[in-house]
Write a structure and sequence with these properties.
Blueprint lengths: L1 H14 L4 H41 L4 H7 L2 H22 L6 H31 L3 H4 L3 H24 L3 H9 L2 H7 L1 H15 L8 E4 L4 E8 L3 E6 L4 E5 L2 H4 L3 E2 L1 H6 L2 E9 L9 H8 L5 H17 L15 H15 L10 E4 L7 E9 L4 H18 L13 H12 L1
Antiparallel strand pairs: 1-2, 1-5, 2-3, 3-4, 6-8, 7-8
Helix pairs in contact: 1-2, 2-4, 3-5, 4-5, 5-7
Length: about 425
């Protein structure tokens, strides 16, 4: 058919006065135009067939994999492959090997390579998104692996295109590429380090999608939303996004709060500072007052019995305060805090549970609360912690204790006025 078109155009052009060479050129152009029209028709028919037969079937299917193929234009790119095949196999037949312009043959080959790479890209993107639908994707993300496969496919495609343009075998290019390895290592340093870092993060289970991590060096404190080839995206609690180089999470230190979240408890570790001038032995009146506090009634009675037996055993004279054993208001206060926290349903009783004294400082005597809440949700955790310390601040005066604080301006003025008076 193509030879008939060429001969028909040649003969008619010669009849109207064209020379044979010019007539041959126009005949070849006519054949190319016809071939392009046939290729376009082939694409149109292929896409129509896919659109009216395959796509409706995909919409009815229960699987989501084929829906993702549609999302990433896999079928349309396959349809583009049809005219490329027609041009690839019929171009020489249309013009003859001697008449076919070499540049056009190379462009057809390059188009074939380009379409192939796009199809591979669609498949890899589909695999990535389909894998993300499973819970294991949070523990073993494959984004960096997919990205490195895409980079490899594009690099191979570029090498094939270069080999087509320079008429050299791809193996020859790869050998010459070895001499440029140092340059390539410098150019692709970040992707290579990112790929290695991503594999280490994944196989060592260091970070998962959804983990709460803190990396102060990169001003990151929030939830991991993406692990890619070169960066880990962290959505901070103020809704900003921090970008951390993937390899940095392997080479630098960071905190992963996953263990806390999986344990089901979040730690409260906070101290209040008692003014040491307010610490004293309990008087009989104070003991009677403390016995009326339901949470520590049993503790007061048992402690008084224990102290009386001890002092009696060693014949201690109780008239002198420093002799023998006595209860102190700060000791009773610690016992009350333990009883109060044990009664709270939102505090874990089977995790570390401490109400302890720390070393005294110039700011007073620290009494530290070291317990775990039963929730790891940030807002609820903060509410529980605030509720506990609201109660502590309000109840401290009942034990005739004071919280240490630096004198305020009003306190200094009050002291000066008293001195003047």
């Amino acid at each position: 058919m193509f030879k008939y078109i060429i001969n028909f155009v040649d003969s008619n052009l010669i009849k109207i006065g064209f020379n044979e060479k010019a007539a041959m050129i126009f005949g070849n152009i006519a054949a190319i135009i016809v071939l392009l029209i046939i290729s376009y028709i082939a694409f149109y028919l292929a896409w129509k067939i896919i659109k009216h037969t395959i796509l409706p079937f995909i919409q009815k299917s229960k699987t989501s994999f084929d829906d993702l193929l549609v999302k990433y234009n896999f079928f349309k790119r396959v349809a583009y492959f049809v005219p490329a095949l027609i041009l690839y196999y019929l171009f020489d037949d249309a013009l003859g090997e001697s008449a076919a312009p070499p540049i056009l043959l190379k462009l057809i080959d390059i188009w074939m390579v380009f379409i192939t790479i796009l199809i591979i890209d669609s498949v890899l993107s589909t695999i990535r998104d389909y894998y993300r639908r499973y819970e294991i994707s949070k523990e073993r993300p494959i984004d960096s692996l997919i990205q490195i496969l895409k980079i490899i496919s594009y690099l191979v495609g570029i090498l094939v295109v270069i080999s087509i343009l320079v008429n050299k075998d791809i193996s020859t290019l790869l050998i010459s590429l070895g001499t440029m390895s140092a340059v390539l290592m410098l150019i692709f340093r970040d992707p290579i380090l990112g790929f290695v870092g991503g594999m280490q993060l994944s196989f060592n289970d260091m970070v998962r999608i959804g983990d709460w991590i803190s990396a102060p060096k990169y001003n990151a404190d929030g939830t991991v939303i993406e692990i890619s080839l070169t960066v880990v995206k962290v959505q901070n609690w103020d809704k900003t996004i921090s970008m951390i180089p993937t390899y940095a999470l392997v080479s630098d230190s960071f905190i992963n709060w996953r263990g806390m979240e999986e344990s089901g408890g979040r730690r409260i570790k906070r101290a209040i500072y008692i003014d040491m001038d307010s610490i004293k032995f309990c008087t009989p009146e104070m003991i009677e007052k403390f016995k009326k506090i339901e949470a520590i009634t049993g503790y007061i009675n048992n402690k008084e019995k224990e102290i009386k037996e001890y002092n009696k055993k060693y014949n201690i004279d109780p008239s002198v305060l420093v002799n023998g054993r006595r209860q102190t208001n700060v000791g009773v206060f610690r016992a009350y805090l333990e009883a109060y926290l044990k009664r709270r349903p939102d505090i874990h009783q089977n995790m570390t549970f401490l109400v302890r004294q720390l070393q005294p400082t110039e700011k007073g005597l620290p009494i530290e609360i070291y317990v775990f809440t039963k929730t790891t949700e940030w807002a609820k955790y903060e509410a529980i912690q605030a509720d506990i310390f609201d109660h502590i601040f309000a109840v401290i005066p009942q034990f005739e204790l004071k919280i240490y604080e630096y004198p305020s301006n009003s306190g200094i003025l009050e002291a000066l006025s008293k001195k003047e008076a």
